[in-house]
Input
Amino acid sequence: MTLLFFGEDRRYQSENSLSGFQFNKYMYEFQFENPIGTYLNSNGDDPSTVYNVPLMRYAEVLLMKAEALIMDGNNGDAPLNMVRERAGLPAISNATMADLKHERRVELAGEFANRHFDLVRWGDAAATYAEPIYGRIYADRSNPDSPYTSEIVWPARNFDASYMNVWPIPSTVIESSGIPQNKGW
Output
């Protein structure tokens, strides 16, 4: 991946990345020739940028509406295609849940939309978590042009829907309210 970093074209490399990849959308502030003091905080004790972290984007609201319409047996094309149009993608007709799932995955990748809740809501968590996650392991992690292999960077996990579809209730809440703990926790 090529990105603009402090005004220079660079190839992404990381000695820390498990997957060998980075989300380019989080590199915006670093593209300028001299971003320190304008886009980046110059205080080394408070490393921060001017990046405005969206807790929820309008695209997510539109995709929620599309999902609700599709799940209710109605046509969710209008809100789903508003998201696709903004991304420069062609419209689709008679969107299915498979279309919606794909759109949420690519539109909200790496954001705070929490894919885990999507997978649980759709009943896909057990199958998804049963698969390992692969990444590029470079022979020389400081050189993005070095040879790489595709290896498991996160092993398969278990998801038991009999109790993992809900979170455990904190013991302080149980003690103060007398409500029972969620089953399995």
About this structure: The two ends are 43 Å apart (CA to CA). The longest strand covers residues 148-154. The beta strands are 2-5, 8-11, 133-138, 148-154.
